[in-house]
Design brief:
Number of strands: 39
Radius of gyration: 33 Å
Strand content: 5-15%
Oligomer: single chain
CATH topology of the domain at 895-1086: Leucine-rich repeat, LRR (right-handed beta-alpha superhelix)
Largest sheet: 23 strands, mixed
Helix content: 25-40%
CATH architecture of the domain at 895-1086: Alpha-Beta Horseshoe
Amino acid sequence: YFSVFAVLHNTNEAGFCFALNLLYSTTSQVTEAAAMGMGLEDLASYVESMLTEMAREKVGLLLGVSSEIQSMENKLRFLKDYFADADRRVIADESVRDWVAQLKQIMYGATDIIDLCQHEAMERGPSATRVVRRFTPLLFCIRNPSVAHDIGSRIKALNQRLDAIMERSAAFNFLSRRDMDHGGEVHTSHPYNFKTSGELDRSDVVGEKIEEATEALVAEIIKTRNEVNNDIAVVAIVGVCGIGKTTLAQKVFNDEAIQGEFDKKIWLSINKHFNKADLLRTAITQAGGDSCPTNDEMDMLVDILADALAGKKVLLVMDDVWYPTAWECVLKKPFFNAAARGSRVLITTRREDVARRMRAQHPCHRVDKLGPEDAWSLMKKQIMGNNTHETELDELKDIGLQIIANCGGLPLAIKVMGGVLSVRHVQRPDWMRVLNDFIPSCELPEVINHSVYLSYEDLAPCLKQCFLHYSLLPTNAVFYENDIVGMWISEGFIHGNSHDYWRDSEDLGSEYYRELILRNLIEPDARYTSQLVCNMNDVVRSFAQSICRDEALVAHNGDMYGYLSSRKFYQLSLESKELESDMLVWSLVQEQTSLRTLVSIGQIKLKPGDSLMAFPSPRTLHIESTNAAVLVESLCQLKHLRYLSVAHTDVSSLPENINTMKFLQHINLQGCESFEKLPDSIIKLEQLRYLNLNDTGINVIPRGFCILTNLSKLYGFPAYMDGNWCSLEELWPLSRLKEIELKGLDNVAAGLFAESASLYQMRLSYLKLECSTRVGGGGLVIEGRSVFQDEENQRIEAVFDELHPPQRLSTLVIQGYFGLQLPVWMRTEDRLECLVVLTMEDLACCTQLPCCLSQLPYLEVLKIQRAPAISCVGPEFLGVSEHHDQTAIMFPRLHELVFSGMVKWEEWVWEKQLNAMPALEELLVDNCKLRSFPPGLAFRARALRRLVVTAAQNLNSLDSFASVVELDVYFSPTLTSIANLHQLQKLTIIFCPKLEKLIGVPAIRRLVLEDYDMETLPRYLQDVGNLSLLQLDCSLELLTSIAMGQPGPEWKKYSHVKHVEAYAHDGDNQREWYVLYTKDPYKFETNINQRSSKLAAVGKGEDKLIGKEAEQLLGIDSSSDSAVSEDNSELVGIENPCQSIIKLLTHGDEEELKMVSICGTGGLGKTTVAHAVYRKIANEFKYNFFVDMPRNLDIKVIIGTICAEVGCPRPKFEECGVQQLVDRLKIFFEGK
């Protein structure tokens, strides 16, 4: 940019046009990318290549600016040599940071100029923008005198600023790339190169998780010949920086079983910038090899290492591997050529792709974050000394846990903060100062910064920008992959290849997203499938935000809104609560006239006249607020806007002149329930790539929709008829569509109309076909819809038959289909040969599953949810027929299988001789009448590691699943026996009252048992001898018996367990009472003895609870967002409405369900009244809960929260749908 603008002084019009055109060609692909997270080197390389091409074609001579072109090329080549050093120094050097910030301002200004030129040309219509060359729009603008004058003035102003910036650059003495490569002094705040060893620091080891992980890894490493290929194998430990990978590897390295298994053990600390010769010398020394030569002759060192390893069984640990080269190019040859069979390589790495490229065994072992209690134990170990007692520390546990929460569960961060606390007094004021100082906006301790910096430094420039942008998103809102990638594209971080028909910007953005996951910089949220939602660790987020702090503000709940009036930002990420005091004041936001990105979650305080007109150049606008509709009225003023999301808001329409927003690419209206009609002018948004209409009231679309040929993703497209015209006809020209969801297909009159969509001609990778559901919450056909006319079945079958997708489809979802048999293209194996994921929901009439599914070569995930007409999954499901090939493997790649809500399913046929599902790893069976699992499943599914069984009404036993490691069994009333699961390590049993036998589980380490109706502990606990952890949720009566300890009747059943955690709920506090027991060293804790004193404090017969103790007894958490407040200052004048509401709720027929609504405008006091009513009558009910219902609610989260508050057991959150949670609540609340 320095060069492009510097030549414009005193140049002629031809040179002016050329420079603008060159600038356009550059910025249209890389300017926005350079604007955040540096990106200078990418920009310079692109411009340099453009200049070389111009010189070669003698364009400069034609324009009369050949000398200026040569000068620009030389300057760029010169400056590019120093960008790497500037990139390193910007993190720690404030003066360099300021210099870069000024440079970014100019880059932002340049992009605005280009947008204005492009917009002006697009406004003139297609004839003006017909591309003769890529510079045409700018040349058109120059021919418009007023536009040319405005652009020229802007460029000259930017030039004057650039002169000063270039002069300042000389003062920084940036190192050239050559100096850096040859050992020049690098200006960086992270010069360290940490080395680790195999020696284990016992103070780093806390909790049961690391013991279980060690045992699992040791078992994997020393598997016998019969269990695994006994050639040299690689085992990987993967996790984010600082999470404890090295500690786990050290524990494995020093395990007693390992000592006797291997002849030699070698520990190599690889690090990012390893030296090959030094690596070999270290390996030779640890292997007991001959003395090493002093030179770096690689062949000689390899031979010496091979001699040392010859015939020996070796364990090699490679710690902190960044690239596969240390193995592939250095160590692999001597190990494979010399070490004995059965040797093993254990690696630790932050990057899952490294493990894959080293061909590590699947699945890799992922290290989990520390839980609060284990983290507290680790922190205490860092603090405790001769003069500090544990009881003193436990008095400050509440503050310690808050500090731990800021550490994101990372052991490294916890140890560092423990070190900080160790030099402070063990007093509340001192610890509070540490807590208040350690917030995300502050600098992290150096050792943590360094650890994260290494991961950041290793990113390509484009990934750095995406990583930094992700760190700015509010933590309490859900952002899907589509949202993230859409923002990245709008910000200019991603540019697809326009010449590659099959790979566009969205594909590239998804690759970047997966790359950040593989590098453990973002972590998939287990509650969502297919990694669609991720989280960023708090420590990693803090580091990233510190880099962006000069141009981005991240503020939550009003804590940093003061900055809005004192500084200018380019990116704002704001999150506010619904309380008026925490609302976002829009007038403060309007002062940010340089804003390019605005993400606002929560309530906004608006006053008359507030609008979006104050922002001249935003690219991204993401608002989730109940009063966003007012702002949308001025939306068309945002000429530069690319990304618009107003999901889950009160927006009911878009401006009729939305076609003036020429750059708009991404529109998300999901959840705008009152939105019923798209503006007709939306069809003129030629750049539109993404449109989400899910969960809106839109049932029609404008005619002419078919001209939006750049659409790549389209969700919630309504199928409807208008006479002889069907909306599906609008789809066939949209050949660039990759993902589409069609709803209301039951409205289509005939298959002929569906055929017009021509889905098979598209390049779809994802397709959802949806009809209005006929299946209700209980899994049965909804009353009144149980009788289908033959013509209805035939019509929907004909419609679906004509909607056959292209062969390259990878994900298919069918919902609400009510044909008797599935579409013909699902019964023909070659039609879906690339399918990877198949989900079918609400199959009201299908009586059997198609046979060809078993022969799909790439199918990995199959989910059947709510199919009430299926009573038997027979041999046809596995492809058995008269012409069946006995040697064929059915479902060869399937690794996840779900059968849920098949309420009449009783039989599953699969004989042992049928070879199927060799790769199956997870199986979930829910809400059925299955009597037993087929013998073929246990015999053939040898990779099955996780089995989840819920609400299996007739199941008697689970037996002989030899490979299962984790078993969850919920709500199975007839289950009596679990036996012969020899690899089982984790077992969860919830409400299985008849279970009497648990045998043949020698590897079990963890048992979770939940049943509030149990009167005594089950006898089978005494037969489980190797149990490390027993976690029990039970009735208060049983917990009281357990709390008696050794004299009590339950002692013999649990005394042999290493750790016991037992809990009972009280009110809506699920774990109010507890017993904690450790066998060695002996420790026994309980608070049951405090219960009687708390009850006495409340008093018998009192209907009013007073004080904190009473709050706890009711299970009310006054510190939570939806707490039932005891602030009496809010209780003025509400006694009468409270009494009226209580009367409505409690008087009359006790058997009648009563629902009372409190209505009123915002701020009137509805919540205060509800709190008061709740406090007064909550203890009259056995179960009570107070739930906050935000505008953009996730119903699954809400129901899951209710389950948690009342103590209703449920499957793991990520494995259950809304209806499953509702079913659990129905069972739990029955008769209560």
